């Protein structure tokens, strides 16, 4: 059912010129440049969702008292639009992002945006800004829908006014010099999410909580941080913004089970099905950090990789902690990781059949 909320289009009267856009698309990086338009809608306690528009990308004017600045009532999504060989533009499982956005909204006491309105807004934005979807390599148009409490009020309660917004940013190949395996720092002091908390919601606060541990990872010569469960500090959960997978020496594949504190990645979920298609037994279960350390040392664990929309699939070279470091195999990633990565990218970029009906054509 399509929702009553219609996003009316107000074209940007001063879009980037073809030359300006071509310059940006030649080397877009990640998250630095934005397309000509954005989607925006307002919710109020009295009127529900209204004033939904696709309009010129630009600054929001907000009171310093706006509740999100003080109490972090906010959620977001991350998804991509891909250009296929015939120049048509497609999204990967957008309905999964719509459903997760609604679930995150519930946890943060934000109003749910009807999933059909979420999808309509994204499709309308991508269609209008289709010239911003780059061509070639592993490039895409990264989409960032988000919602926040926009009530100019310092009282602590769910915001009586909420803003939904979606912006689009052209993204170059995440790994310009080919896929580079990452070193992972084990955070033994800080945790990212506790039972009953917000770990399973896509909310800025989880990222804020991860940044100091991420800084510690960088200080220790690592690229990313891995978090353990908050109670026993024993079970591997995920990275700051990516889920983890392990490939064992019997060719089976394992990922930490959803515990209520792990973010359920769309990539993680898709890989569960893709590895089955590729003929590997796959299980979701608890994995202790000792199993990781000992398995990498003994060869029982052959490959480790991280996954998420932004970087897709990244091999893990090693796990480092304050008293040591263990490399995974030769530290260069392995064939199972490479096969899963190709299978996923081939699907997203329209180079292969789509047996699970995961792709949605936008235009
Ligand atoms: C977004 C996110 C992921 C990856 O989810 P995808 O849907 O695969 O992009 C993993 N962990 C955290 C904490 C995240 O915020």
UniProtKB/TrEMBL annotation:
Keywords: Amino-acid biosynthesis, Aminotransferase, Branched-chain amino acid biosynthesis, Pyridoxal phosphate, Transferase. Its EC number is 2.6.1.42. Pfam families: Aminotran_4. Residues 1-17 have a biased composition (Polar residues). Its cofactor is pyridoxal 5'-phosphate. Gene3D superfamilies: 3.30.470.10, D-amino Acid Aminotransferase, subunit A, domain 2. It catalyses: L-isoleucine + 2-oxoglutarate = (S)-3-methyl-2-oxopentanoate + L-glutamate; L-leucine + 2-oxoglutarate = 4-methyl-2-oxopentanoate + L-glutamate; L-valine + 2-oxoglutarate = 3-methyl-2-oxobutanoate + L-glutamate. Pathway: Amino-acid biosynthesis; L-leucine biosynthesis; L-leucine from 3-methyl-2-oxobutanoate: step 4/4; Amino-acid biosynthesis; L-isoleucine biosynthesis; L-isoleucine from 2-oxobutanoate: step 4/4; Amino-acid biosynthesis; L-valine biosynthesis; L-valine from pyruvate: step 4/4. One of its GO terms (biological process) is L-leucine biosynthetic process. One of its GO terms (molecular function) is L-isoleucine-2-oxoglutarate transaminase activity. Residues 1-20 are annotated as: Disordered. The modification N6-(pyridoxal phosphate)lysine is found at residue 202. Belongs to the class-IV pyridoxal-phosphate-dependent aminotransferase family. This is Branched-chain-amino-acid aminotransferase. It comes from Kribbella albertanoniae.
